[in-house]
Amino acid sequence: MATQETLPAPTSTRTGAPRPRSTTATRAPYAFIAPFYVLFVLFMLVPIVASLYLSLTSWAGLGAPEWIGLRNYANLFTDSSFHKALVNTLLYVAVAVVVIVPVSLLLATALNARGLRARDAFRVTYFVPMVVSPIIVALIFSLVFDQNYGLANSLLHALFGLGGVDWLGDPTIAKVAISLVMLWRWAGYLTIFFLAGLQNVPKDLYEAAALDGAGWWRSFTSVTLPALKPVTAFVAVTSFISAAQIFDEPFLLTQGGPSDQTLSVAMFIYRAAFQRQQFGYAAAGGVVLFVVVFLVSQGFNRLLGIGRSS
Amino acid sequence: MSPTGISRRQALKLTGSAVGGAALLAGCGSGLAAPVTSGDVTLDFWTHDEGYETFFRDGIPDADAATDFRYTLDATRAGAQDLVTKLLAQAVAGRGKPDVIGIEIGQFARLQRGDLAERLLYDWTDRVAGLGDDLIAARRAPYTKDGKLYALDSDTPMVVYYQREDLFSQYRLPTDVGSWEELAQVGAQAAQQHGVALGVLAAGSDLGQIVQGFQMLLLQRGGAFFDADENLVLDSPEAVETLQFVVDGLKDGWITTVNDFYGASVQAGLKSGKIAGMWMASWYSAFGLKPNVPEQAGAWRLRALPAWSAGGFATAAAGGTGFAATVDQSGTEAAAEFIASTWITPEGQVRRFQELTYLPTLRSVFDSPELEVADDYFGGQQVIDVYRSIVDDVPDYYQSPDSSILNDVLSGHLVSAYRGDESPAQAIRGAAEDFANQAGR
Amino acid sequence: MTTSTLTRPAPPSTGTRRSRPSGGRVLLYVTLTVLALAFLAPLLWAVSGSFKPRGDIFSVPVQVLPSHPTLENYRNLLTTQPFWAWFGVSTLVAVVATVVSVFVCAMAGFGFAKYTFRGKRLLFSVMFSSLSVPFAVILVPLFVLLVKTGLGSPWFALIVPWVAPAFGIFMMQQYIVQSVPDDVLEAARIDGCGELRTFLTIVLPLLRPSLGALAVWTFLQSYNSFLWPLVIVSDTDRATIPLGLQTLFLSENRSYDLVLAGAVLATVPTILVFLLLRKQLLEGLAAGAVKG
After folding, report:
1. Are C147 and B271 within 8 A, CB to CB?
2. With a CB-CB cutoff of 8 Å, which residues 104-133 of chain A face chain B?
3. Most exposed among A121, B50, B249, C129, judged by the fewest C-beta atoms under 10 Å?
4. Is residue A291 part of a domain?
């Protein structure tokens, strides 16, 4: 099967694990991984198959779903709000991968500076937003971004004399606001991965680069970046998957508005199912999201070799 | 599972489970328990608001006296939207449905899709037939599907004009202008001279509120979102005209916008005296004014809305929560009796006004002397007088299963019209087009 | 001159920085501190708000510290809402889910890391790919499935489907490959140790740091989850904290005051768990990615 080659391989195949001989030992690995697959089949595979079926029906939530073939998919392609959801989700993904990941890398580099005091305190501080429940994050930020009385505008006013930014009401700025919340929540978390990666870069590589007369930038590009490739790959893919499924921020902060300008695909699915009673249509949106996320992340994996030891 | 490499055997399995899944989803095992016809009964009672729970608990003695049942309530509280989601989910599961559920009016629209309402909710049509026209028609329309009535509203939430009597007299503004056009003139001057607003619209992230602020005026003007057959009728001269009116008002500064009718921004506007008047539904005094600015007690007054010189109604209805009983439950009959004996009796409606400040849905109860109470928040005014004067001219309000789609699209276009990014005509047209693009999936 | 004398005391690139705080260093500290403030400000503002009377929460200009500090919000929350019930449900669910999940993930991770077996690549791929299944896709059918089969009780539904996260298995697998030497396992086998006993007595103790990491991660996931409890829990008294707060916030009068107090109380356990186990979490999370 073609996919087998593209999917990531478990690490041990390359490192040469011991080959047990006895029969108990050949059964043992299956026993170890069995619980996962039981749960996986029951609570993920079966629902996915049901979703595939539902996506070919029209179902308001009760009674027998009515078979309508591919009509839901055809409708998705002409639905302007689905297009907006796709474009916005693409934007969230871009923000995550192109802005948040590099920012985290910079932050990690700064935290990795030699002899930095209070490194742990900084690291912990940046991570804290990640432990706060999304509903609480949304609540706090809906107050922070209040146009007239929020902290954000108060600060802008105090620092720069600016004011009256319509954070959640302006179509463009609302996207910025949501991106800022993503940055706030994720940057510290991703920094952890980079920081660990940085601490594993052999020091003598830097020393060699320094002896060659390399400045900060050159040793960053010639030593740090190549050494961080596996970490970066992992962080980029997990950020991509999370951003592609983003739900909490737009749902809780803007309800996808104004004019669907912050709507994400995950929220589109939720909205179709739980606000509009179009379960079949929602399932079709889910299948599209699944296929796209799946293919792209497989592509990423293949390109970057995640899950493979090199 | 991978979409590219499915073997034939896997594909067969997929089809097999898909059929199984279908059976799973389709089934609606009712496993009917024998209906309870008298004696002790515990009703599962779902609502999004504590006030209703208290009201119905207090009504238990009345219900016990009027029926053959002795009631106990087991209450569950959740968000208005979550309640309907859960109702449907439990119905699919075939167990765990509530006996009585308070459905917020906007959420009822979801049950208008297909035959959901018919499958889930008790049909009140025959039972209330005896009430005739006394059950206000405007409160039946939103909960009617195919001529059948599925819920009984908690309120006749008429839109009135709230005004700060002290500020009006301080700024020498007339408190009895006859038309919106006059109010706009007075307001434009007041905004210029004193920086006060005489009207408020929502333009934040709560899409329902954005629509509601506009909808109240549109309905009063004689426009509508949907007709009785669930067709969109938004794109009308009345809608463009009404939107033009509020856009002009925003430009002149006598209408202001807030992010949230209940939260920070409205509170600050009220506190600072920048908001001296607003059109809002009757429940706003209990949910908006009194909790946010208790210190302004005595300063506020209620009056009927100014009229539109081009015609329309005396008021409009906005909001509401319909109480429904669910079918196929052992307690269906008991639940219906319970609602009937607490909710739509004249005594119940008087008590509802006294405890929850909701207006009766029976026309005759408006004339009850027990409603004639002085409200200190409104300087001792008998607010029922105002409502009595307009209750016979409430426009009907219809919803559609696609109401929430309209909320999503219209809110965006309204805000862009408020901001001046679109002309009112473009905004209304655009909302209608977007709706057509998304509805009926 | 050996390299060690050169590098240790005065590496060329850092020598100048060490001698006296240079402009770059000051800039670094200033930047990091400003960022730290930016990260904390919204949270501190919420904490401060929870001690303000409702009318002061939105006063202009913003009050950094409450000018009329009060415990009224907390008192109201705790007396009018079943907050401790929510708290109990959330904590219990999270703790049970964490314990089971850590064990299941360690087992599966061990299976993948230290054995070769038929179908391993495919099984691993399936496991890894399940990371990219959007939750929204399975939400509705999963709910129907659970309730129809009589497994819809919150205790089961909030815990069981979520105890084998692919992320956790992947992380454990990575960690085990790096930190459990093959010869230790061989030695155990030669001593006649069964596979399960080898896992329990030899492997698990070696995994302590990463188990801690996974535990914190799972606890946070479970404690903070929102969408699933929203669909599955229908009883106010059995709501989880995020659900309870959401209901409170959506009630007719927008109880900002109570909700802020609740948010602060709700965040206390997560912050505590995080602070206590932060070393394991930060290092364990990183272990999965570093040698990716």
Report:
1. no
2. none
3. A121
4. yes
pLDDT at residue C60 in the model? 62
Secondary structure of residue B256 in the 3-state scheme: strand
Tokens standing for residue B178: 């006859």
Structure tokens at B52: 């209703």
pTM listed for this prediction: 0.84
Q: Which residues of B201-230 are buried (b: 16+ CB within 10 A; e: fewer)?
A: bbbbbbbbbbbbbbbbbbbbbbbbbbeeeb
| Angle between helices C135-148 and B80-93 in degrees, nearest 10 | 50
Do C149 and C55 lie in one domain? The reply is: no
pLDDT tens for each residue of A97-122: 999 999 999 999 888 887 888 888 88
> Half-sphere exposure (CA, 13 Å, Cβ side) for A39?
21
Q: Do B3 and A261 touch (CB under 8 A)?
A: no
Q: What is the DSSP string of C74-110?
A: HHHHHHHS-HHHHHHHHHHHHHHHHHHHHHHHHHHHH
Instruction: Inform me whether the pLDDT recorded for C11 exceeds 60.
Output: no
Check whether residue A185 and residue A292 sit in a common domain.
no
Residues of A in contact with C136 (CB under 8 A): 245, 247, 266, 269-270, 282, 286, 289
Q: Supply the angle between the helices C12-19 and A203-211 in degrees, to the nearest 10.
A: 90
Is residue A40 in a domain?
no
Q: Tell me how close the Cα of B174 comes to any Cα of chain C, in angstroms.
A: 31
Closest by CA to C209, choosing from C242, C185, C238, C174, is C174
Chain B: residue nearest C126 by CA? Answer: B1
| Chain A residue with minimum CA distance to B434 | A80
Could you tell me if residue A295 is inside a domain? yes
Among B49, B86, B95, select the one facing C252 at the smallest CB separation. B49
Q: Both tokens of residue C146?
A: 């659970």
Tell me: pLDDT of C252 over 70.
Answer: no
| Rounded distance between C-alpha atoms, residue B221 and residue A278, angstroms | 33
> Residue A198: what pLDDT?
84
Tens of pLDDT, residues A45-80 = 998 998 899 899 988 878 788 899 999 999 999 998
pLDDT, tens digit (0-9, with 9 covering 90-100), for A202-256 = 888 888 888 888 777 888 888 888 888 878 887 888 888 889 888 888 887 888 8
Contact B77 C145 (CB under 8 A): no
Size of interface B-C (CB pairs under 8 A): 75
Domain that holds residue A272: 46-78+264-305
Instruction: State the DSSP H helix or E strand holding residue B301, giving kind and residue range, or none if neither.
Output: strand B300-303
- pLDDT-derived band at C4 (thresholds 50, 70, 90) equals very low
Dist CA A268 CA B163 (whole Å): 40
Distance between CA atoms of residues B367 and B370, nearest Å = 9
Structural domain ending residue among the three candidates C15, C41, C69: C69
A155 and A238, same domain (yes or no): yes
Q: B4 and A45 in contact by Cβ < 8 A? A: no
| DSSP E strand boundaries for chain C | none
Distance CA A125, CA A110 (A): 14
Q: Is the residue at C242 inside a domain?
A: yes
Interface list for C 36-95 with A (CB within 8 A): 36, 38-43, 45-46, 49, 57-62
- Asked if B85 and A149 come within 8 Å (Cβ–Cβ), the reply is no
Residue C240: CATH number of its domain: 1.10.3720.10
Q: Single out the residue in C18, C42, C69 at which a domain terminates.
A: C69
CATH code: domain of residue A175: 1.10.3720.10
Residues A57 and A97 in one domain: no
Residues of chain B contacting A80 with CB distance shorter than 8 Å? 434, 437-438
Find out whether B2 and C129 touch, Cβ atoms under 8 Å.
Answer: yes
Please give the angle made by the CA atoms of A254, B236 and B433, to the nearest 5 degrees. 50
**Residue C244 C-alpha, separation from nearest chain A C-alpha, in angstroms:** 10
- Interface subset of C 135-174, CB within 8 angstroms of A: 135-142, 144-145, 160-161, 163-164, 166-167, 169-170, 173-174
